[in-house]
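ok trying again, last paste got cut off:
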Amino acid sequence: MKVTRFFTTEDGGSAFDELDIPVVISTTDAWANELQFSEAFASPNVRIFEAPVDAFQDWHNAPTRQLCIMLEGIWEIGTTDGDKQRWGPGEVFMPDTVAGQGHTSRVVEGPVRMVFVPVPAEVDIASWHMD
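nice, full thing came through this time. structure:
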């Protein structure tokens, strides 16, 4: 599963990169469907988030590394290198700017509703990086 991540750069800024969460565990269900799963990880404090129409957050850090699953609205993130990206319903991204200057956030179309799934530090996302 492809996921856009934004992270803290060495100079304390922020930038985007791409991850690909491996979905490599196969199983066959009772109806002979071949299903694929990723490795499981325990996630503390899964939360639902809402932001109103026209909400803007200036430079700030993510509270933790987390997967954000968009349910409704359009959310825009800006990084210190001047890049901006947007996500809508059904899309997933990963804030990983827990230090440095962080990122900006803006509701482009709202309200925005999403699910936050914290990714614990012991989960090695190095294997998720795109080649």
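cool. The chain is about 0% helix and 55% strand. Strands lie at 2-8, 14-20, 25-28, 34-37, 47-51, 56-60, 66-78, 84-87, 92-96, 103-118.
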